[in-house]
């Protein structure tokens, strides 16, 4: 359906009604994978956002900890205190369920911020490269090519290491989360820049852009008002898939000990801690964070896959 | 009477779709004798290629033969499965596709592709196959065949590639060749050469040819007999001169009138009003009746009259004089 | 063709120069090398002497050139943390990583192509559907979780295979140590190799499958069938060969990633390779080791890419006989 038809027909309809009648929404309703993964993502995101309300304890409040509760198995009363915990406790008596909720908060915060950062950076650089061309384009795209030769997890590690080197020792733990966002964001902008540049090149040659230029609109106004909207759906797809990758990247870095510090543990940090208890039989300290990470990464990934097929089957 | 090389009896092909079963080929019958070229004409979607694919056993699933019989040299081949059918392909039935640019494997030399085909079907040695490959290229008129044998497809022009494709289709000396729009993708200047090459080779070897095309010019040039198809059914079947000069079916007449070659002298080209019905929405009775200038009452519900050689599947066939 | 190779070599050198610049900038500007090398007790003279010795008083381009000169000769300076030449440490660790990467790479390529072809040819079969569904989970599964899962199954529960280290190794020549020659070495290699190879295998499999399905739709495959060629010939000689043209590039890139992803696997299994060294270097901000690792891995990546490009020319005749004109 053409845009013109859409607007005339939609005049007396709200945005929501239009959305409900769209092919996109129809395809969404028809796909069980999309529905399930969307639900899982919603549940996980909401429980992360409202972690302080849901979590039985605040694992970072020393007052709420009781060392006697250490190593309580899930759903079994503790031998000393008789307290039971849904997912057991770790060595320090912290409730695993609560640490997961708080950990997921950090994982999601880092993931979403890193993707937003990469997206903004990629869009700006992509617009510049596509619209202005010339040496700016050469430098940006060459650099992108070189960066693309290296796996992004390696780039993120390097940036993390360098940024850590710049941070004074006493601030390192405090700054770790922000350094992590910077590192993952910088490792992931290339895809966005490429897509936006491609869309810009296509739109730039069209008559309406020439017309806007003739009447003296500023380049940035043209780019943001006219060109960018055309690149939005691929950008959305890449953002979703990038989010899954960013969550995994964050978990990986934290697991390796070059990410979120033990004072602000993300899911990756929790798994790193839990791995130490694998041989001694306290499986739950590892098992539940790992399952949560898996559910989060898998459902975001599936949603991204579905979105890609629904919005643009040719984008691979 | 000798048995024809190919004999199709009441052939139907069905494709199950979400909107129900469609029949791209519906009760088609015709024969092709040794050394004869049968032209199969019709608009795209008329089922002419689908019938060709059914004969060679290359229908893409979920399309399948749902009725009728296919006889090749007196043997019924439509029930043959997998391996038995594969042995017939290339050996007994050769096929030529529309686009020579995409029909050849870009990563193998033309010599390799010829040799592998012959080695699959003929009891010959590798060395013999290599020699015969050169001969096959020579036969289709490729200059310097001995040197070109190790060339890759991309090193040939479009017309030359179609010659290679013909050499490949004929190299195991099949008794039937199905040529599916063999000239459509080629330059006009090359088309006539390819047609006359195909004609010459088949005459020399006595190969029967099913020449599928939408181009009346090609039919006039090459075919001995013509089968006109419309919406999956046979509209008219007969000798090429009769059909071209004295069409009996109103559709054939319209088709002829809309072809520049056959309508020389006419000021304006004729147009058949409307379009061929979609397979999901086939009208009752004769599929052509909504567009037919000579439509009668019975056309919209009665089943078509039985077809035969030199006849049209029509309740009100044109008389010979009407064409004048 | 020669021109093509020369151009590619030129591009590769340019990439290496850029990476070298990044590595050098890290070396020079992240923290103060003097601070890092001298302890708290130092004199102004010490600082000055070291500054001249390290050439830090010279202009930037000269320093960069000297750094490159050193790097080409394998001189990457001294590790802040261990106080030994970085090159020596890397040489010690390299065999472990290379052996692990080689085995996983081989595993990923062989199994990936085999499964990709299988799922493409039998695309409607039950087995193919199962493999595809499993691979979707595999792509979303972080490498370190696979490693932990394998450790849990085969080391903790079953006790069949060791969960860390390289087992017994045998020295070959001056500096190469191999784990291939002892039983414990091979046993120790199994879990890390699977962990490292699994993700790459999944990617290769999915790529081979989608490319092969694309190729199987092509006219020349239909024509090959119409000529009565056997299924085996159509699938392998015709379809697989055409599939490999785009796949080879990606496999090349994947091999590069294997060396990078070895960092994760080496950490999970405490495998004494360069990846583990790199992670430790990041934790302790040991800049010379980081810079050297970066340079080393870039040389590998660029080298692999170059080989892939040249390989490409041998697979695809359309590139080989690039006559005059065109591009």
TrEMBL record, chain A:
<keyword id="KW-0812">Transmembrane</keyword>
<feature type="transmembrane region" description="Helical">
    <location>
        <begin position="33"/>
        <end position="55"/>
    </location>
</feature>
<dbReference type="Pfam" id="PF12911">
    <property type="entry name" value="OppC_N"/>
</dbReference>
<feature type="transmembrane region" description="Helical">
    <location>
        <begin position="175"/>
        <end position="196"/>
    </location>
</feature>
<feature type="domain" description="ABC transmembrane type-1">
    <location>
        <begin position="104"/>
        <end position="304"/>
    </location>
</feature>
<dbReference type="GO" id="GO:0055085">
    <property type="term" value="P:transmembrane transport"/>
</dbReference>
<feature type="transmembrane region" description="Helical">
    <location>
        <begin position="144"/>
        <end position="163"/>
    </location>
</feature>
<dbReference type="InterPro" id="IPR050366">
    <property type="entry name" value="BP-dependent_transpt_permease"/>
</dbReference>
<feature type="transmembrane region" description="Helical">
    <location>
        <begin position="227"/>
        <end position="249"/>
    </location>
</feature>
<keyword id="KW-0813">Transport</keyword>
<feature type="transmembrane region" description="Helical">
    <location>
        <begin position="283"/>
        <end position="307"/>
    </location>
</feature>
<dbReference type="Pfam" id="PF00528">
    <property type="entry name" value="BPD_transp_1"/>
</dbReference>
<keyword id="KW-0472">Membrane</keyword>
<protein>
    <submittedName>
        <fullName>Peptide ABC transporter permease</fullName>
    </submittedName>
</protein>
<dbReference type="InterPro" id="IPR000515">
    <property type="entry name" value="MetI-like"/>
</dbReference>
UniProtKB/TrEMBL annotation, chain B:
<feature type="domain" description="ABC transporter">
    <location>
        <begin position="6"/>
        <end position="256"/>
    </location>
</feature>
<dbReference type="InterPro" id="IPR003593">
    <property type="entry name" value="AAA+_ATPase"/>
</dbReference>
<keyword id="KW-0813">Transport</keyword>
<keyword id="KW-0547">Nucleotide-binding</keyword>
<dbReference type="Pfam" id="PF00005">
    <property type="entry name" value="ABC_tran"/>
</dbReference>
<dbReference type="GO" id="GO:0015833">
    <property type="term" value="P:peptide transport"/>
</dbReference>
<dbReference type="GO" id="GO:0005524">
    <property type="term" value="F:ATP binding"/>
</dbReference>
<dbReference type="GO" id="GO:0016887">
    <property type="term" value="F:ATP hydrolysis activity"/>
</dbReference>
<protein>
    <submittedName>
        <fullName>ABC transporter ATP-binding protein</fullName>
    </submittedName>
</protein>
<comment type="similarity">
    <text>Belongs to the ABC transporter superfamily.</text>
</comment>
<dbReference type="InterPro" id="IPR013563">
    <property type="entry name" value="Oligopep_ABC_C"/>
</dbReference>
<dbReference type="InterPro" id="IPR017871">
    <property type="entry name" value="ABC_transporter-like_CS"/>
</dbReference>
<dbReference type="GO" id="GO:0055085">
    <property type="term" value="P:transmembrane transport"/>
</dbReference>
<keyword id="KW-0472">Membrane</keyword>
<keyword id="KW-0067">ATP-binding</keyword>
UniProtKB/TrEMBL annotation, chain C:
<feature type="transmembrane region" description="Helical">
    <location>
        <begin position="247"/>
        <end position="271"/>
    </location>
</feature>
<dbReference type="InterPro" id="IPR045621">
    <property type="entry name" value="BPD_transp_1_N"/>
</dbReference>
<dbReference type="InterPro" id="IPR035906">
    <property type="entry name" value="MetI-like_sf"/>
</dbReference>
<dbReference type="GO" id="GO:0055085">
    <property type="term" value="P:transmembrane transport"/>
</dbReference>
<keyword id="KW-1133">Transmembrane helix</keyword>
<keyword id="KW-1003">Cell membrane</keyword>
<dbReference type="Pfam" id="PF19300">
    <property type="entry name" value="BPD_transp_1_N"/>
</dbReference>
<comment type="similarity">
    <text>Belongs to the binding-protein-dependent transport system permease family.</text>
</comment>
<protein>
    <submittedName>
        <fullName>ABC transporter permease</fullName>
    </submittedName>
</protein>
<keyword id="KW-0472">Membrane</keyword>
<dbReference type="Pfam" id="PF00528">
    <property type="entry name" value="BPD_transp_1"/>
</dbReference>
<feature type="transmembrane region" description="Helical">
    <location>
        <begin position="133"/>
        <end position="155"/>
    </location>
</feature>
<feature type="domain" description="ABC transmembrane type-1">
    <location>
        <begin position="94"/>
        <end position="312"/>
    </location>
</feature>
<dbReference type="GO" id="GO:0005886">
    <property type="term" value="C:plasma membrane"/>
</dbReference>
<feature type="transmembrane region" description="Helical">
    <location>
        <begin position="12"/>
        <end position="30"/>
    </location>
</feature>
């Amino acid at each position: 359906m053409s845009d013109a038809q859409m607007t005339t027909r939609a005049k007396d309809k709200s945005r929501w009604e239009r959305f409900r009648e769209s092919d996109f929404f129809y395809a969404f309703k028809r796909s069980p994978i999309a529905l399930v993964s969307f639900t899982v993502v919603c549940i996980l995101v909401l429980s992360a956002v409202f972690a302080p309300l849901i979590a039985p304890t605040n694992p970072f409040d020393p007052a709420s900890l009781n060392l006697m509760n250490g190593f309580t198995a899930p759903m079994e009363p503790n031998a000393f205190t008789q307290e039971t915990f849904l997912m057991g406790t770790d060595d320090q008596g912290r409730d695993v369920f609560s640490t997961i909720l708080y950990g997921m908060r950090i994982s999601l915060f880092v993931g979403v911020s890193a993707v937003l950062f990469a997206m903004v950076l990629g869009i700006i650089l992509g617009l510049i490269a596509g619209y202005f061309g010339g040496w700016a384009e050469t430098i940006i795209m060459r650099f992108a090519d070189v960066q693309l030769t290296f796996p992004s997890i390696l780039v993120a590690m390097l940036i993390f290491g360098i940024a850590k080197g710049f941070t004074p020792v006493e601030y390192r733990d405090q700054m770790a989360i922000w350094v992590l966002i910077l590192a993952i964001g910088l490792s992931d902008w290339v895809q966005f820049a490429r897509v936006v540049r491609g869309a810009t090149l296509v739109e730039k040659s069209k008559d309406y852009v020439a017309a806007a230029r003739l009447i003296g609109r500023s380049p940035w106004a043209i780019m943001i008002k006219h060109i960018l909207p055309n690149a939005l759906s691929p950008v959305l797809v890449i953002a979703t898939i990038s989010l899954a990758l960013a969550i995994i990247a964050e978990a990986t870095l934290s697991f390796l000990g070059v990410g979120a510090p033990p004072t602000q543990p993300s899911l990756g940090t929790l798994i790193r801690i839990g791995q130490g208890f694998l041989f001694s039989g306290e499986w739950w300290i590892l098992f539940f964070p790992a399952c949560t990470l898996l559910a989060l990464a898998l459902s975001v990934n599936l949603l991204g896959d579905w979105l890609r097929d629904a919005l643009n089957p040719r984008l691979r | 009477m000798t048995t024809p090389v190919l004999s199709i009896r009441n052939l139907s092909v069905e494709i199950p779709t979400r909107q129900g079963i469609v029949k791209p080929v519906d009760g088609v019958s015709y024969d092709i004798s040794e050394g004869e070229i049968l032209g199969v004409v019709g608009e795209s979607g008329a089922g002419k290629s689908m019938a060709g694919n059914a004969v060679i056993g290359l229908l893409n699933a979920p399309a399948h033969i749902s009725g009728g019989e296919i006889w090749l040299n007196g043997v019924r081949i439509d029930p043959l499965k997998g391996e038995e059918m594969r042995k017939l392909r290339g050996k007994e039935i050769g096929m030529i596709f529309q686009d020579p640019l995409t029909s050849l494997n870009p990563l193998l030399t033309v010599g390799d592709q010829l040799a592998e085909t012959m080695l699959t079907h003929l009891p010959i040695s590798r060395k013999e196959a290599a020699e015969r490959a050169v001969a096959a290229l020579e036969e289709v008129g490729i200059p310097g065949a001995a040197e070109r044998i190790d060339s890759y497809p991309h090193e040939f022009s479009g017309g030359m590639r179609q010659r290679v494709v013909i050499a490949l289709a004929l190299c195991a000396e099949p008794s039937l060749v199905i040529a599916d729009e063999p000239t459509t993708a080629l330059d006009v200047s090359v088309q006539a050469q390819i047609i006359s090459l195909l004609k010459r080779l088949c005459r020399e070897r006595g190969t029967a040819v099913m020449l599928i095309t939408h181009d009346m010019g090609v039919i006039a040039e090459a075919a001995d007999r013509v089968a006109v198809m419309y919406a999956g059914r046979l509209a008219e079947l007969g000798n090429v001169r009769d059909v071209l000069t004295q069409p009996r079916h109103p559709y054939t007449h319209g088709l002829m009138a809309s072809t520049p070659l056959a309508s020389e002298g006419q000021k304006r080209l004729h147009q058949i009003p409307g379009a061929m019905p979609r397979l999901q929405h086939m009208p009752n009775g004769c599929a052509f009746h909504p567009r037919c200038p000579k439509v009668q009452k019975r056309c919209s519900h009665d089943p078509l009259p039985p077809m035969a050689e030199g006849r049209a599947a029509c309740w009100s066939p044109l008389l010979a004089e009407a064409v004048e | 063709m020669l021109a093509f190779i020369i151009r590619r070599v030129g591009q590769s050198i340019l990439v290496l120069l850029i990476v070298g610049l990044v590595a050098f900038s890290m070396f020079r500007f992240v923290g103060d090398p003097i601070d890092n090398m001298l302890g708290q007790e130092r004199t102004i003279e010490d600082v000055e002497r070291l500054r001249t010795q390290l050439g830090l008083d010279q202009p930037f381009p000269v320093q960069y050139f000297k750094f490159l000169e050193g790097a080409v000769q394998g001189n990457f300076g001294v590790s802040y943390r261990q106080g030994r030449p970085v090159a020596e440490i890397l040489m010690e660790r390299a065999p472990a990583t290379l052996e692990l990467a080689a085995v996983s790479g081989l595993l990923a390529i062989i199994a990936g192509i085999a499964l990709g072809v299988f799922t493409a040819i039998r695309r409607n079969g039950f087995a193919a559907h199962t493999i595809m569904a499993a691979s979707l989970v595999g792509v979303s599964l972080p490498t370190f979780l696979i490693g932990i899962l394998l450790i849990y199954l085969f080391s903790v529960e079953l006790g069949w295979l060791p969960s860390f280290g390289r087992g017994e190794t045998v020295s070959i020549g001056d500096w190469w140590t191999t784990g291939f020659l002892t039983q414990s070495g091979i046993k120790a290699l199994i879990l890390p190799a699977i962990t490292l190879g699994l993700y790459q295998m999944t990617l290769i499999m999915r790529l081979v499958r989608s490319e092969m399905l694309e190729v199987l739709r092509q006219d020349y495959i239909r024509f090959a069938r119409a000529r009565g060629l056997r299924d085996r010939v159509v699938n392998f000689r015709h379809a697989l060969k055409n599939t490999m043209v785009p796949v080879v590039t990606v496999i090349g890139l994947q091999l590069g990633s294997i060396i990078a992803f070895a960092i994760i696997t080496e950490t999970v299994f405490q495998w004494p390779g360069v990846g583990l060294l790199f992670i430790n270097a990041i934790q302790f901000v040991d800049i010379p080791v980081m810079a050297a690792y970066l340079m080393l891995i870039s040389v590998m990546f660029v080298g692999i890419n170059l080989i892939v490009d040249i390989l490409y020319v041998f697979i695809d005749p359309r590139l080989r006989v690039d006559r005059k004109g065109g591009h």
